[in-house]
Structures are given as structure tokens and as C-alpha cells.
């Protein structure tokens, strides 16, 4: 268990026991703390020590003895607690590191504007400038960026960012997990012979590119949607507009258009949930040569990459607020480009675009 600061109640206990003349060890036992914690607290807040020898007044003779002598002042719990809070605030202020004007700040602002997280920025800079003579000039911690955005009142970055989002989901409370409902979808015939458990084993370890996960991202009021696709090995994202609705024939048509942009060796499989929008999956398989496998009901973790991608997309299209009715394919392509240019920790801070390109180059060699 980590160190825990003394509470106001514990300081009140120390005040009473110290005034009663108990020793450090006795006070520590009563409060439930180590005696060194009590000793440091009294050293900070009970005045000076006295090594005066000879006769002592009865009151002073009752004072506990520390390493440097006998305490000669009373301990006030209220004053000590106020002082501890003030010192903590001052220490926090001293820990803040200013991100001053210059090319480093300009890059941080630009990448925050592309919705990179502070950790992505910090790690990507460390990756790019590893071993470089100017590595120190391009080094910044994620905490420094967080402070510049959310803590510092002067010289901060908040005023320079137009669309900075503090939390990706926007939620302040956890959602309850949905109750499993496997039997409710057991009559969906298009899923029976194409369950996710029958997908090739090579898709599981992400070693071979070309296995995709897909879903619909629903707009405000459930009145609009877009197609979202993510490649499992590289986390490369493709998005498709659905201006004509989300019936199965429309969704399959958009998916076919997206997969027609891919070479054959990147069409190995597609994982989807059991929604009726892919009831015509056989038509998609015939048009693209890509098999579709369906996850179990209420099992989003079986398509974890796609669920994570949809969470990232909510930074651009807030849940319950954004309608996709007026979102064009060009708009979606611009968002996909930004996501594919973000470094990812799971890719050792490479970007999805770089990773997919690396796969493509390796396959042509």
C-alpha cells in the first residue's frame, strides 16, 4: 500500500496524545501509524527542540523527546493541517513544467489539434528522436502536456486549441454491462454457418494482415449511421457513408465499394456482429471473395479493435449529438486519414498507415 497523508482526524488524535505526554511509539500505536510518521509530523509542526539540561518545569517535562531533544511547543492539529495543505499546493506548483514558445510547443499544439493524446505525442517524439543529437530539445513528458492544457493558468495551451476533448467517451459514470441474450438471435439464419469460432486461426494472433472487424456507428436518435472498418494487424481504419439508410442491401453495397479498394490479399475475412444490416452477407462474399464471420450476441470484446476504433470516432462524432445525414464520404475520409496517422502504443508508436504500408512492401518483396 502506498503512502497516505495524515488526515485531519489523525492530527486531532496526535494533538490530544501529544498534550497528554505520550511517547512517539505510544502515539503511533494509538493513531495506527509508524512512529517515524508521527516524529516527522511533530518535527514540522510542534516548534523547536531543546537540549537544555537540568531541571524542567512540570509541563515541559511531559513533552515527548525526539532525536534532537525534547519538544518545547504545543502541537495544534488545525494549524498543522492547514500548513500541510498549503505546502502540498506549493509543491504541485513547483512540479509544473512550462512548455515555452518554440518548435516543440508548435508541434504539440498541431498534434493536439489532430486529437492525439499527450501520451501519443510524447512517445512518438521519443521514437523519432531516439539517438538524435537534439533529442533533449524534443523531449516532453505526457504529464507536462497535460499540465499545459488543463492546469497552467498562464502560458497554457487551452486557448490555442479549438477542439480539445478532455475525455474520449464524455461519460462520467460507468455503464452497466448488457444482459447476455444469446437465445434472442438464434434464429438469424445468415449467421449459423459463419460463427466467429470458425474464422481461420491466423486471424487470432494478428500476424497476417487482411482480417477486418466492422460495425455501424449510429448517429443521434438512431436516424443515421456510417460503416466502420478496422484491420486487425495494423489498426488501419476505413469509413463508409450511408446516405441511403442502413438496410442490408445499402450496407453491403458500401462494404463492397470499400473492399474493392483493397488488393486481394487484404480481403481475408471480416468479423461483424449479428445485426440484420448484414443479412445479405452472402452477396458481399460473392462480390468480394471475403468471408464474413459473426460474433456471438452481446460479445463486443470479440471485435475489440472495432469497438476501440468506434470509441475514438466519438471524439469526432459525439454520441447522441451528431447526425450523419449531412456527413459526406469526403468528411469520413478526412477523419480516417487522421486516425491512420495517429501513433499507437500497441504498434510500438508507429501509425496504422505506416504499419499497413510496411506489410504491403513486405508482401511485394
Offer a quick outline of the entry:
The chain is of the alpha/beta class and 365 residues long. The protein has helices at 8-19, 24-31, 35-45, 58-61, 77-95, 103-113, 118-128, 142-150, 248-259, 281-288, 304-313, 329-340, 352-364, and strands at 49-50, 65-66, 69-71, 211-218, 225-231, 237-241, 269-272, 292-294. It contains 13 helices and eight strands.
Share in helix: 25-40%
Structural class: alpha/beta
Share of residues in strands: 5-15%
| Largest β sheet strand count, sense and barrel closure | 5 strands, mixed
Instruction: Report the radius of gyration as a whole number of Å.
Output: 31 Å
Terminal CA distance reads: 53 Å
Average per-residue pLDDT, rounded, comes to 81
Total of DSSP H or I helical runs spanning 4+ residues: 13
- Please count the beta strands (DSSP E, at least 2 residues each): 8
Using the alpha-carbon principal axes, give the shape.
elongated
H-E order: HHHEHEEHHHHEEEHEHEHHH
Poorly predicted runs are 48-57, 164-174, 179-185
Q: Order of strands in the sheet with the most strands?
A: 6-5-4-7-8
Amino acid at each position: 500500500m502506498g503512502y497516505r497523508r495524515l488526515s485531519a482526524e489523525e492530527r486531532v488524535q496526535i494533538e490530544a496524545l501529544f498534550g497528554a505526554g505520550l511517547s512517539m511509539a505510544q502515539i503511533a500505536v494509538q493513531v495506527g501509524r509508524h512512529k517515524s510518521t508521527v516524529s516527522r509530523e511533530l518535527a514540522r509542526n510542534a516548534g523547536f527542540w531543546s537540549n537544555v539540561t537540568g531541571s524542567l518545569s512540570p509541563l515541559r517535562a511531559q513533552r515527548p523527546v525526539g532525536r534532537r531533544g525534547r519538544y518545547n511547543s504545543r502541537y495544534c492539529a488545525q494549524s498543522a493541517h492547514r500548513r500541510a495543505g498549503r505546502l502540498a499546493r506549493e509543491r504541485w506548483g513547483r512540479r509544473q513544467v512550462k512548455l515555452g514558445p518554440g518548435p516543440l510547443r508548435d508541434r504539440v499544439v498541431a498534434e493536439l489539434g489532430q486529437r492525439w493524446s499527450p501520451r501519443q505525442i510524447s512517445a512518438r517524439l521519443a521514437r523519432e528522436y531516439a539517438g538524435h543529437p537534439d533529442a533533449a530539445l524534443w523531449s516532453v513528458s505526457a504529464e507536462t502536456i497535460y499540465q499545459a492544457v488543463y492546469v497552467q493558468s498562464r502560458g497554457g495551451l487551452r486557448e490555442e486549441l479549438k477542439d480539445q476533448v478532455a475525455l474520449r467517451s464524455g461519460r462520467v459514470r460507468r455503464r452497466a454491462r448488457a444482459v447476455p441474450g444469446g437465445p434472442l438471435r438464434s434464429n438469424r439464419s445468415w449467421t449459423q454457418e459463419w460463427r466467429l469460432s470458425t474464422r481461420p486461426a491466423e486471424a487470432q494472433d494478428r500476424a497476417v494482415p487482411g482480417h477486418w472487424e466492422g460495425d455501424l456507428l449510429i448517429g443521434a436518435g438512431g436516424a443515421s449511421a456510417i460503416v466502420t472498418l478496422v484491420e486487425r494487424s495494423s489498426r488501419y481504419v476505413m469509413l463508409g457513408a450511408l446516405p441511403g439508410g442502413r438496410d442490408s442491401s445499402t450496407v453491403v453495397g458500401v462494404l463492397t465499394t470499400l473492399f474493392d479498394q483493397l488488393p486481394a490479399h487484404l480481403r481475408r475475412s471480416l468479423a461483424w456482429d449479428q445485426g440484420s444490416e448484414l443479412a445479405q452477407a452472402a452477396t458481399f462474399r460473392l462480390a468480394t471473395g471475403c468471408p464474413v464471420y459473426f460474433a456471438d450476441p452481446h460479445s463486443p470484446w470479440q471485435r475489440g479493435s472495432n469497438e476501440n476504433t468506434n470509441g475514438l470516432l466519438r471524439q469526432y462524432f459525439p454520441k447522441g449529438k451528431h447526425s450523419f445525414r449531412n456527413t459526406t464520404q469526403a468528411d469520413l475520409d478526412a477523419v480516417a486519414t487522421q486516425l491512420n496517422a495517429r501513433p499507437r502504443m500497441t504498434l510500438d508508436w508507429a501509425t496504422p498507415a505506416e504499419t499497413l504500408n510496411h506489410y504491403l512492401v513486405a508482401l511485394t518483396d
